[in-house]
Design a protein that fits this description.
Shape: elongated
Largest sheet: 6 strands, mixed
Radius of gyration: 23 Å
Order of helices and strands: EEEHEEEHHHEHEHEEHEHEEHEH
Structural class: alpha/beta
Number of helices: 10
Helix content: 25-40%
Distance between the termini: 33 Å
Strand order of the largest sheet: 6-7-8-3-9-10
Length: 295
């Protein structure tokens, strides 16, 4: 069931068009990544969907009705807090602003602190929190009122690798109960947990990818060959339909229909090239993204 529907969304700032004629559907328990270079319009799009700014044209519908902000939880890229507050105080404030009752606020605030790994930090002032802890607290406030739709703007951009992994695990759990749309430059994360990816460029949607179907529909197998010495690319190139030179001693590509993997290995043996690794390799979302952006 579609719970968020966007049609013809457009935002102008003077003569600059930040977002142009954007269409998007978000279904229940679906996770969609919003991808694109800086300035593509991702943040502006999320702000319009969250109801923070008004579009010049287009409509945003939740459950086929006018935008219902109560159905949406939003985490900006750089959340701001009152450093003198404790996390429970902050969540009680956000719960009150959302119209929740005291009883529900008390129960829910402890639950979201537990979900985001901050339960043991509830007696620490927010000013003493690390960047990763503040990001998780921002996520806690975004899900405090149990929204149907969670919008996140670069939720892992300021985190170290461990913090990024923690947030991704949290999102994996949250997608069981709500739809998630988040912008990111970490394409590995999008490939791991998302169902679809919307790629934007210059304010427009240029590609909408079903990640699971795309990964399972790579008709030609790609092989990675990694050797102990530099490869004679010119001599091997005729064996490939397409070839990507990763390093002097590593190539990834699709073999010609009349070339078998054994023929490639035999070529390496004849030229006394020791293979350290040889096997199939999926094209990553990052590689596909670069192809789409540069097309």
């Amino acid at each position: 069931m579609t719970i968020l529907k966007v049609q013809g969304l457009t935002k102008r700032y003077g003569n600059h068009i930040a977002v142009k004629d954007l269409n998007l559907h978000l279904r229940e328990k679906e996770c969609v990544a919003l991808l694109g270079p800086n300035g593509a319009g991702k943040t502006t799009t999320l702000h319009m969907l969250a109801g923070l700014i008004s579009p010049n044209a287009g409509v945003v519908l939740t459950d086929n009705k006018a935008l219902n902000r109560d159905a949406i939880g939003f985490l900006p890229q750089h959340p701001v807090f009152f450093d003198w507050m404790y996390p429970l105080e902050y969540l009680r404030l956000t719960g009150t602003l959302s119209g929740m009752t005291r009883q529900i606020i008390k129960k829910r605030s402890l639950r979201v602190l537990e979900m985001t790994g901050l339960l043991e930090a509830q007696k620490k002032k927010i000013g003493s929190f690390s960047g990763g802890m503040k990001q998780r607290l921002g996520l806690a406030q975004a899900i405090m009122h149990e929204p149907k739709i969670l919008l996140l703007d670069e939720p892992v951009s300021a985190l170290d690798p461990a913090g990024r992994i923690d947030v991704m695990h949290i999102l994996e759990d949250l997608k069981k109960d709500m739809a998630i749309l988040f912008s990111t430059h970490v394409l590995h994360d999008a490939q791991q947990i998302c169902d679809h990816a919307l790629i934007m460029k210059a304010g427009q949607s240029i590609s909408y990818e079903n990640i699971k179907e795309w990964r399972g529909d790579q008709s030609s197998e790609r092989y990675r060959l990694e050797t102990s010495v530099a490869l004679p690319i010119a001599e091997l190139q005729d064996l490939y339909v397409e070839i990507d030179i990763k390093e002097p001693n590593m190539i990834v590509g699709t073999l010609r229909d009349d070339v078998t993997p054994n023929m490639l290995l035999q070529q390496c043996i004849q030229q006394d090239i020791g293979a350290r690794y040889f096997g199939t390799e999926e094209k990553t979302l990052e590689e596909h993204y670069i192809e789409v952006i540069e097309a």
